Structures are given as C-alpha cells and as structure tokens.
C-alpha cells in the first residue's frame, strides 16, 4: 500500500487540516494520542511529553539500550564511582553537535558547561534561568535528587563530577531517564538575553537524533533528521511527524489506511482486527506497568482509613479487567508490577465485599449519598486503555454502597496540572517504570517528597518513608528488598491507592516499519527505526 503524509491546507477558520499526499519512504508518521504539555523534559512525568522531547530531541549522560533496561554510555562515554558511592566522575563525549535551527545556531560543541547548566538549573531555585522561567522539575524532586546531589563540578571541558550527600543506588539509571536530558547552556543564555526564557519549553534544542521543526497543538509535531548525530546508525529517517490523534478508533483507521506507520495505545478490542490485517504487525510484551486509583487523603472523607478501605473493597476489579483490559490485563494486588524486583507476592487484596464496605462507611460516619469527585484520564494508556469506562464501572460499584461518584475529565495536560495541585478527590492514573529500580515506584509515587509531584494520593507516612529512604541509599540489594517489602505492606494497609491491573503492551505498526523496539518504560522511541524503500 502506498505510504502517505499530511499536506496542510489553510481553512477559512484559520486552522490547518491535513490531506494525504505521496510521501517519501524516509518520512515516518506516528499517530500519537495527545498533545504534549511542553518540550522541556525536566518539567514533566508523562510519556506523552517525553516522547515529544526526550525521545526525539535530547540525549542524556547515560541511556538505556534500545528495548531494554541496561544502561549504556550516552553523552558520557564512561564514568567512575568512588568507593563510598558519593562521587561520580563522567567523561564526556567529544564532537557532539547541538541542533542548528531557524531560532538557534550553536557556536561550539557540547561540553561540561551544558551539563552544569542542566543540573544547576534543577538544583538552584535562585539561578537566573529558574527566576526568568518558573519551573517545577517534579521528577527531580520526587526522586529526592535535589537533596541527594550536593554539587556538580566542571573538572575540564569534557569531565564533570557529581558530589552526592548520600548514596543513591540507582544514580546512573536515574541519569538515563528523560527528565535528565541535557540542555544547551548557550541556547539558554541566548533566551535569557532575548527575554524569551519560556521558549526552552516550546522550541527545544538538543543533541538527539531528531531536530524540532514546528508544533501545532492538537494537530502535529514535525522533526527532521539530525544529520550530524554522534551515533549515525540511529538516524534512518529523514523526517518524523507526530500526527496527534486522541481518538483510538481514528488512530486505527489512519494506521490501516497508511496515513501513519506507527500508532500509539490501541484499544484491546482492536488488537485482533489489527492482527488480521496483512499490512500491519502487532508487537507485544509483558507490561512493566500498573493501572490504579489514587485517593487524595487530604480531602474528607478520604482522610479516613475506613473510608478508603470501603471504597477499595467495593470495586469489582475482575469486572473492570474483563470489560476494559480484556485479554490484555491481569489483576494487580500490589503497588508494584510482578516483574519489578522486590515485589512482594504475599500481599493480597481485601476481598470484594460491598456489605462490609457499607458497614465501614457507617462506622466512619459517611452518610449515604455522599459525593466524591472521580477523575478519569482522557488519554489511552497501556496501564489503562479506557479510563472513562473504568470510572463508569467504579461509579456503579460505589453507588451500591451509597457513594455518588461524579466523573470529572480534563485535557491531559490540564488533568496532570490540576491533580498536582490536589484538586481531585480520587483519580484514575497509571504508571510504567522508568529505570528498573523499585524507588521509581515506591519513592516517586508515594513518598513524602513526592506529595507536590507524582504522589497523587498526597499521602505521607513517616514509617513508610523511612523504609523507602533507607532502601534508596543502600547498595545491598537483599537489604533493600526487605525494606521495600516492609514498605509495600504499610502501603497496602493504609490504602492510599487501589491497584487495578497490570497489562500487556501492544505496539501496532505497518509492515514496512523496520527495527522498532518496544520500550519497557512505556516510551515510543524512533532511534534506529527505518522504513522499507
């Protein structure tokens, strides 16, 4: 089937529509599921934002091997760790070029100054750039790196040293994560001089395999190949286009018609249809993910344990998995996926029991008819392919115990922004591991440090937090496992979340796509991907 692309036509309303035209074999169109909130990876925690920036425009000091969790050199060619685990010395790759665009022309190669700018901006709230452009850096603070990193030193043009206040067992893996993408200090200085600091989040400049060209919200993002990329074997496409297509049915039709070659987040009900199409392939692997419901424990009556227990045991999780996940979901009973080392298999759910749930609500003084705002994502995720349907089923379950659930939805960027502000009562969310370490779950999602970030339960338990922090700074895996398993038990007893499902990840693409690898971290990378001529 002929490959096609989108040609913009100006409509009377001033918007762009897109029609298919003949397309060169080296242009790949990805039907993505949502508009990114921005293009500065340090500011976000969502795969939507990382795909549009970290996985295209940027690199990091270390990186994960394609399709795996093993760390390999990135912008650093090698590194040494001191015996006490408090000093990391990175040797930087020479000859790496920052992107030349219509809004920036670099005058030098990547060097230590760029690493210092990237991390000092995250560390120092008083830095000129932070003051010129307010930024949150949620991942950085959720993982405690703002207190772990004592300082970053430039030893010479191609050597930097990180001095830590405490051991971080996953430090090298952390630096391979999207939020640690290295920015251009020269570009940032130009933006400050021009008074346009916020453009770092709208017009990204990196060293990655693709150069940002332009973005139209809710429509498309265009990239061109970085012909000066330091790892040329990873750049096999001349152009990459994100065709933003929120509706899963529309993504399927575009994929079948050849309007895109790769599509994000299929509905489970569409998998068999895709597998039967001779022009398509569907890659799949066990997901490193969790779909869950978070209770905002700062909002009455969710601040009462008995209420959270009641809501939890009133949810018919097998029914949700059958209807929403279909053959792609497995019952989740823990806050970690089974594939994560330190997972405690002894933890089990409280049984589904609406009668006991009603009794617990009565004991807690919650009157029948009490309303709880239940937030549902508007985007599809492997961890929850249809949050709206999940919410509707939970609504029906809670109605049986006298709770009225008011379903609330927002556009994805607004959903995350409002949730971080704690506006929700309960919210459906999902997580896919980012670096293979348990702290990426138990620290990032439920620690006290993450309450203003990705801890959407707003839950802070000192006993739990102590265990997680002890485990984070230990290099003894067996001891870490013990602490993490104790923490999992506290988490289960206190019910800040209801785990719902772990799901299989499916990646549909057209048969002409070559060497696409599923990321275990829920990202959509196009490094090394090509199209048949």
TrEMBL record:
Keywords: Peptide transport, Protein transport, Signal, Transport. GO terms for cellular component: ATP-binding cassette (ABC) transporter complex; outer membrane-bounded periplasmic space. GO terms for biological process: dipeptide transport; protein transport. Residues 70-450 form the Solute-binding protein family domain. InterPro entries: Peptide/Ni-bd, SBP_5, SBP_5_CS, SBP_5_dom. Residues 1-24 form the signal peptide. CDD domains: PBP2_DppA_like. Gene3D superfamilies: Dipeptide-binding Protein, Domain 1, Dipeptide-binding Protein, Domain 3, Periplasmic binding protein-like II. GO terms for molecular function: peptide transmembrane transporter activity. The keyword Protease does not apply. Pfam families: SBP_bac_5. Belongs to the bacterial solute-binding protein 5 family. This is ABC transporter substrate-binding protein. The lineage of its organism: Bacteria, Pseudomonadati, Pseudomonadota, Gammaproteobacteria, Pseudomonadales.
């Amino acid at each position: 089937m002929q490959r096609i692309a989108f040609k913009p036509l100006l409509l009377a309303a001033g918007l762009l529509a897109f029609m298919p035209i003949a397309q060169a074999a080296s242009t790949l169109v990805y039907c993505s599921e949502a508009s990114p909130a921005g293009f500065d990876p340090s500011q976000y925690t969502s795969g939507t934002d990382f795909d549009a920036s970290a996985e295209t425009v940027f690199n990091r000091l270390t990186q994960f091997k394609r399709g795996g969790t093993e760390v390999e050199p990135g912008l650093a060619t090698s590194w040494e760790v001191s015996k006490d685990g408090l000093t990391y010395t990175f040797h930087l790759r020479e000859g790496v070029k920052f992107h030349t665009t219509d809004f920036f022309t670099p005058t030098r190669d990547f060097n230590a100054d760029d690493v210092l700018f990237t991390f000092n901006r995250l560390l120092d709230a008083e830095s000129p750039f932070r003051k010129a452009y307010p930024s949150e850096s949620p991942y950085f603070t959720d993982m405690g790196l703002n207190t772990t990193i004592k300082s970053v030193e430039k030893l010479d043009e191609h050597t930097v040293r990180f001095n830590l206040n405490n051991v971080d067992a996953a430090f090298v893996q952390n630096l391979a994560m999207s939020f640690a993408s290295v920015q251009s200090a020269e570009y940032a200085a130009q933006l400050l001089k021009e008074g346009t600091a916020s453009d770092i989040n709208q017009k990204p400049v990196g060293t990655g395999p693709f150069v940002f060209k332009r973005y139209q919200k809710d429509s498309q993002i265009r990239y061109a190949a970085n012909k000066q990329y330091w790892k040329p074997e990873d750049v096999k496409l001349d152009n990459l286009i994100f065709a933003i297509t929120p509706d899963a049915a529309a993504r399927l039709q575009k994929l079948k018609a050849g309007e895109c070659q790769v599509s994000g987040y299929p509905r489970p009900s569409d998998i068999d249809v895709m597998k039967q199409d001779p022009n398509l392939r569907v890659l799949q692997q066990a997901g490193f993910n969790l779909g869950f419901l978070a209770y905002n424990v700062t909002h009455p009556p969710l601040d009462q344990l008995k209420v959270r227990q009641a809501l939890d045991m009133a949810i018919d999780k097998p029914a949700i998995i059958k209807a929403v996940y279909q053959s792609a979901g497995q019952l989740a009973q823990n806050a970690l996926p089974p594939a994560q080392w330190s997972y405690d298999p002894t933890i089990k759910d409280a049984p589904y029991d609406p009668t006991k749930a009603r009794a617990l609500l009565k004991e807690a003084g919650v009157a029948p008819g009490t309303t709880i705002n239940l937030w549902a994502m508007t985007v599809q995720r492997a961890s929850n392919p249809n949050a709206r349907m999940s919410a509707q089923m939970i609504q029906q379950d809670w109605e049986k115990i006298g709770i009225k659930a008011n379903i609330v939805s927002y556009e994805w960027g607004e959903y995350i922004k409002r949730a971080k502000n704690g506006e929700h009562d309960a919210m459906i969310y999902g997580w896919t591991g980012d670096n293979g370490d348990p702290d990426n779950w138990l620290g990032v999602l439920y620690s006290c440090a993450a309450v203003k970030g990705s801890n959407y339960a707003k839950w802070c338990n000192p006993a739990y937090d102590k265990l997680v922090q002890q485990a984070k700074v230990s290099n003894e895996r067996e001891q870490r496992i013990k602490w993490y398993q104790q923490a999992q038990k506290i988490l289960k007893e206190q019910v800040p979340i209801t785990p719902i499902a772990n799901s299989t990840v499916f990646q549909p693409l057209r048969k002409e796509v070559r060497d696409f690898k599923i990321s275990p971290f829920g990202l959509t990378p196009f490094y090394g991907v090509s199209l048949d001529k």
